[in-house]
Amino acid sequence: MNENENITSDFIRDIITEDVKNGKNESRVHTRFPPEPNGYLHIGHAKSICLNFGVANQFNGKCNLRFDDTNPSREEVEYVESIKEDIKWLGWDWEDRLFFASDYFDSLYEYAVKLINDGKAYVDDLNAEQIREYRGTLTEPGKESPHRVRSIEENLDLFEKMRVGEFDDGAKVLRAKIDMASPNLNMRDPVLYRILRATHHRTGDKWCIYPMYDWAHGQSDSLEGITHSLCDISFEDHRPLYDWFIDQLGVHHPQQIEFARLNISFTVLSKRKLRLLVEQNLVTGWDDSRMPTLSGLRRRGYTPESIRNFCDKIGVAKRESIVDAALLEHCLREDLNLRAKRVMAVLDPLKVVIDNYPENQTEELEAINNPENEADGTRMVPFSREIYIERDDFMEDPPKKFFRLAPGREIRLKHAYFITCNEVIKNENGEIIELHCTYDPASKGGASPDGRKVKGTLHWVSVEHAVDAEIHLYDRLFVKENPLEDEDFISNLNQNSHEILNGCKLEPSLAEAKPGELFQFMRQGYFVVDSKDSGSDKKVFNRTVGLRDSWAKMQNK
Question: What positions carry a catalytic annotation?
């Protein structure tokens, strides 16, 4: 075990610690992460990734990446590549241990032939609807198929004919012969193979029969020498079936351990349902910044460190619960607070003219990049006679507790000077279009020259030097804490989850900002340069998360 690994103990690690101590599997620890390449990974998968790779790292073991590519009708190379990219982005490395369930198609077929020879499997002519009908219910036993009594010789002949393509899709299946009266429905003669003519992304048209996930899962683990097969809780009822397969075949027996899936408030973590959002164009794609996919979170500005920290904080449990989305945002703020430079951006500009500031003059003012990280140093920000401030930082008739700019009131401009508003200019519709102010030259850098105090400090951008930008503001994708409590989960979509702001003004240091680069816009939140829509001729920023940390506030109560 790596003694430097600072990971909180949990029931899975306790089990593995005992196994290593007792010499089980020669004290080896070998895990795997087995995604299906039928969609993009979401943050629920990040929990499994961090657990499987983290456990292997902690116990000086190995972790494989194995794609469960047993359903070619839903799988694409695009998904394979995106999954590999996501895992690497999270900071994990499978080294030379990249595998596919399709690597074992020949072995799985031979295993199936062994079950037939042992009288433990048979070819069935029932269709999918009939199989469901014969299966029974939780309170009633199932019925045996009339084809269950076929001889070993007939089953071997039919299975070979299935393999070479003599039957139509869906005409026959291979089923295990277990117990149609078992209280566990998974043990009621489950299907092992179905006929499916679909070109596989790796094996092409070599096969027209494909193994079911339940058949491929345990045997793939066994073939790879996996010691601890870590699965989410939905596989608990399948474990007796996997054990039965392994025991019948007499091969290496990995230990399956189940853990609770990740559920986050206001979030859907179902690849099938997320695919529905993509296919119905309810989002712009798998990497839409509102999506809980790892590619969406990455585009939104989430860092791998924040996600790994989140997975560490929520821990590993046996019982499912809902994690507050605010905790994920808190982990992100913790990380960005240390790494993101503080810059000035005005999202809804209101022009301010400083009448007593010299015309045609520009001065460079020093600004601290990040007060939490001295190594980030400082930068120079241009200041001139005309600046932009936020429109809602001014009120003509302010309430008592409004401490920003108002007629006759003095405020501080961040890194710059004290200014006082003297005049308000309006258009013919009575809308405020410009403010005229004066500044105190003795207050350079925002320092009070005579000890007088001002309560408001505003960010600003020089009009002459401003960089134009498009800003995307995001809110939660769903309005309900548990969007899936309604059958029509799509009805719980937040129709105001995405807002685009044009005409935003940024300080000039952001002109060279690169896609994926993160910043804190003072008083606005954390923002990232969009990785797809931003280019040399257009700056697009996505708001990653706001500054208010509701999770930290709750913990401090």
Answer: 36, 261, 271
**Beta-strand relationship, 98-100 and 62-67:** parallel
Predicted TM-score (pTM) above 0.85: yes
Q: Sheet containing 191-195: which strands, arranged edge to edge?
A: 121-124, 173-176, 191-195, 209-211
Collapsing DSSP to helix, strand or coil, 509 comes out as: helix
CA dist., res. 508 & res. 462, Å (int): 9
Q: 550: part of which helix (H) or strand (E)? A: helix 550-555
Tokens, residue 428: 């013919």
The domains located in the chain, with CATH, are 11-259 (3.40.50.620), 271-341+469-555 (2.40.240.10), 345-459 (2.40.240.10)
Phi then psi for residue 167, to 5 deg, are -120, 155
| 115-127 confidence digits (pLDDT tens) | 999 999 999 999 9
Can you point out the beta strands (E) in 333-390? 341-343, 345-346, 349-354, 363-368, 378-383, 386-390
Q: Which residues are CB-contacts of 414 (< 8 A; sequence separation ≥ 6)? A: 344, 367, 446, 457, 458, 459, 460, 522
Can you spell out the DSSP letters for 417-483? -EEEEEEEEE-TTS-EEEEEEEEEGGGGGG--SSS---S-EE--EETTTPEEEEEEEE--SBSSSSG
Q: Which two tokens stand for residue 153?
A: 């010789």
pLDDT tens digits for range 507-520: 999 999 999 999 99
Count how many Cα atoms sit within 13 Å of the Cα of residue 269 in the half-sphere of its side chain: 21
**Long-range CB contacts (within 8 A, 24+) of 546-552:** 547/333, 547/520, 547/523, 549/326, 549/329, 549/330, 549/333, 550/326, 550/329, 551/324, 551/326, 551/327, 551/329, 551/330, 552/330, 552/333
Over residues 529-544, the pLDDT tens digits come to 999 987 777 899 999 9
Query: Is residue 394 a contact partner of residue 350, using CB atoms and an 8 Å limit?
Result: yes
* CA 171/CA 489 separation, integer angstroms: 35
Give CA–CA dist 137/470, Å, rounded: 56
3-state secondary structure 128-163: HHHHHHHHCCCCCCCCCCCCCCCCHHHHHHHHHHHH
What does DSSP assign to residue 324? P
What is the average pLDDT across 500-529? 97
- Two structure tokens written together for 552: 């930290």
Average pLDDT, the chain: 95
Query: Mean per-residue pLDDT for 2-23?
Result: 81
pLDDT, tens digit, 9 for 90 and up, residues 186-195 = 999 999 999 9
Q: Could you report how far apart the first and last alpha carbons of the chain are, in Å?
A: 38
Please give the Cα distance from 497 to 24 (Å, whole number): 51
Residue 149: both structure tokens together = 């009594």
